[in-house]
Design goal:
Strand content: 5-15%
Radius of gyration: 29 Å
Strand order of the largest sheet: 6-7-9-11-13
Shape: elongated
Distance between the termini: 76 Å
Helix content: 40-55%
Largest sheet: 5 strands, parallel
Amino acid sequence: MVVASDAIEETSHHGGTEEALEHHNGRTKGEFAVEADLLEMKYKIFRFPSNLRRIGTERDYILPSTVAIGPYYHRNPELQAMEEVKRKAVDYFFQQSAQEQEATYKKMISITRKARNYYADSYVLDGIPDNEFASMMFIDGFFLVMFIDYMIRTTAKTSWLASMIQPYMIGITRDMMLLENQIPWPVIEFFMALQPLTMGQIIGFVTSCLSGRILSKGSFVLDIDQDYQPSHLLCLTRSCIVGRKHASDAQFFPDETIQSYTSAVELAEMGIKLKPTKNTQLLDMNITEGLFFATLSLPPLSLDSIGACWLVNMAAFEMWTETSWTDDCSINSYLAVLSLLMSQEDDVGELRARRIIQGLSNHRALEFFDGLEPGLCPGRAYYRLIVGLAEYKHKRRMWISIYRFLYNNIRTILKVVSLVGVLVGIFTELDQLSEITLSETCLGKDAMCILGKLRILHCLMLLHGSYIECNLNFKAEEFQQLRSLVVDCSGITNISFESGAAPKLKMIIWSFVTMEALFGVEHLPKLKKLELNGNCDLDKVTAAIENILTSLF
């Protein structure tokens, strides 16, 4: 690889003598050679590793189904129909462009000579002459850039492409991220300048596919280091969804074996809350401890069939370029953490309820991770999290035992002992509270009456499992100082306000699975904001709004 060899050459010229090279920065020439080999490895286009070959073969994550990009499947007879489409697309572009196809081809000849060195499987390239390889790089590189440009923004230059690629669009989107179906980044970069297309636009598009966000064409932009040089498109995508590397840890592996089994349901029983991170960078996995509970934050994942294929191929690429003992192995680590948390469909449901997993059904998601887990090679990022969980379980073992008992027996306890008496004592002592957030508390009507009597309560948030009734009723003379109400509890389907309840309430945000009714908003004279998120009957919403307008005029 040019980068590695150049590093050795520059050291040689700088030192001036062989002896200087032998001991430059305390390293020998042999050590430089090993380092050069390792750097070269990171810039190769590899074959699919044996670790993941079983699931790759079973789920069809290795072979392209629609289009060959690069030499490994260039002569595959099942993909020849697409070869003709690629040639026509490139020819048509130059017919509509002021640029000459032959002149452009000659400019990139020098790039194609270096591009041969990117491919790890030299046996395949031995059978491809230089002129055929150059033509292949020209057609494949230009077609790939045109396709991405079309997916990002439909312009006069790319709209004509739709009729050619529409029948193949899903297959091309899948195939362009296969490890064995890549072309060197310098080839892609050459054609990006002709569109023009930026690296930020490309990575914005592919990361939006993985995150499940629906963005309008033209909004696929991500601010990244323009000097960054990946080896190919899959490498670029992996680098940007991983995020910044962690600072090197002096030691993160435990001195003794730790229990690594922890399902999503078990975390809930331990009082560890699952929370999606605000961005999708995989190195943002972390566990934070609070006074009573801990929070495990994980990047959200939109897992459809194409996203699953991309992730497995990024994990496969990572196995060639990073090692478990010295690197984060972020893709492998992230997938290993999710695999660890899923032992049954209830675990997938818990992750879905926390908005960490989207897409595939619970059964299919569990099947995917069960098949993937044995072949993964997690690194430092995984072990940092596992050690953090183990330390938390050890430090809080007494509290966890108590909480687990309460968590698993709360309904039985409520039948035997009235929670109201307990809450009376608690809230009598805490009458100075101005904000309250409740989650997994399983409160009923009587408890809400107690909350309604708190004298300076300004903000009330009712989250998952906080309230066991479907009807949430605010009675007259209660919640006299309440300004803000946030409800994100799936069991609540009706909210009503009696005349005289919550007279100073300014904002209501209600997130629900199903909304049956919203009554009495006309009794809220200070209400400025009403936000409803979920599946609701528009007629009922309209009626509620009309009641508000009637009360105003």
